[in-house]
Fold:
Amino acid sequence: MKPEKYTIMFIPDDESGSKSFHLSKRVIQLIMTGFGLLLFSCLIVLFYYVPQMSDYDEIKGRHDFFASERLKVLELTRNIERVKQMDELVRKSLGASLEVDERPTISDSVTGTISTQGSHLSFIENIPSVAPIQGYISQRSAKSSLFIKKAHHGIDIVAKEGEPILAASSGVVVFSGWTYEFGNLIILYHGDDYFTHYGHAKQNFKNQLDSVTRGEVIALVGNTGISSGPHLHFEIWKKFVAIDPLIYFPEYRATDLTLTHE
Structure:
């Protein structure tokens, strides 16, 4: 005859105060069934939901990666538009006075001088070699990223307002005027696909299509456009690609204020 009840006893080592519990066969069956269901549920979670959680982490990682790549594509698109605008500006500004697409014919093989209608450029003097001003670097070149929303294509050089700005090399003025971001801006074309930009000037001394020589004063340091104080925003472009000016002017590293925060 099978028992209808089971007794569970808890007996201390000193055999005092023992306790007993009487459980019916039906209660024990219910407890075993509940434990089985709990174990089955744990197995379902382990084999079904855990892989899904892993897939979620993988999908989230891919989403973050594609989001960062999309930001890079958007920044490249903006850069391409800027290059197109610069190219159009050069074409409209120079016209027949200077052929940008084709390398001009060298008239003097010793000095590298070329002649165009109304302008003379030298491939020896077109490489930026004269520091536009003496001052302190408050911001360096930086590409856009997840933490940097907007690329900074040049360097900011803090100087006293009214200080003369020098042409980094000989060239032709392709733009001289006002822009919303850089205030009074001058863009020089130096031949061999070199361009230099000088922004936030207080006053521009050169006009469009003017020829300038290396080291010539072209403007004064100012605080125009989107600016928090008197400084020069200086950029160097080669074949429509922005180049860090510190490569051409390493002497600026001695007055680089940004290094104190690295």
